[in-house]
Design a protein that fits this description.
Blueprint (H helix, E strand, L loop, with lengths): L2 E5 L2 E4 L4 E8 L8 E6 L6 E6 L5 E3 L7 E6 L4 E6 L8 E7 L4 E2 L3 E6 L1
Parallel strand pairs: 2-11
Antiparallel strand pairs: 1-3, 3-8, 4-5, 4-9, 5-6, 7-8, 9-10, 9-11
Length: 113
């Protein structure tokens, strides 16, 4: 069974950092073709960062310069490093594998002011 499992969320003060992980189960993950999304309470799910099949990386404007998507093939894991966190970053964060349209169950990030 192919699954994506996120972890690394939690409660952090504004200005702090977190690193989210997305581990693949039943599938070999690569950075290309992966994305991180988030959904804040009462809002639609939005793209945070993505890597196209050709390797082009895209970030939503609100996280540029603060968030970094990366991967570790040996660990079958894709990461989202989040620095200088703001209260408006509070959301459930999901990883997504585009070619199989698979989502993880999400990990909650709460940033206090």
């Amino acid at each position: 069974q192919v699954q994506l499992v996120e972890s690394g969320g939690g409660l952090v003060q504004a200005g702090g950092s977190l690193r989210l992980s997305c581990v693949g189960s039943g599938i070999v993950l690569g950075l290309n073709g992966m994305g991180w999304y988030r959904q804040a309470p009462g809002k639609q799910r939005e793209l945070v960062a993505s890597v196209a099949s050709a390797g082009t990386i895209n970030y939503v404007d609100s996280v540029k310069g603060r968030f970094t998507i990366s991967g570790d093939n040996a660990k079958n894991t894709v990461y989202l490093q989040m620095n200088s966190l703001k209260p408006e970053d509070t959301a459930v964060y999901y990883c997504h594998l585009y070619n199989l349209a698979i989502w993880g169950k999400g990990t909650l990030v709460t940033v206090s002011s």
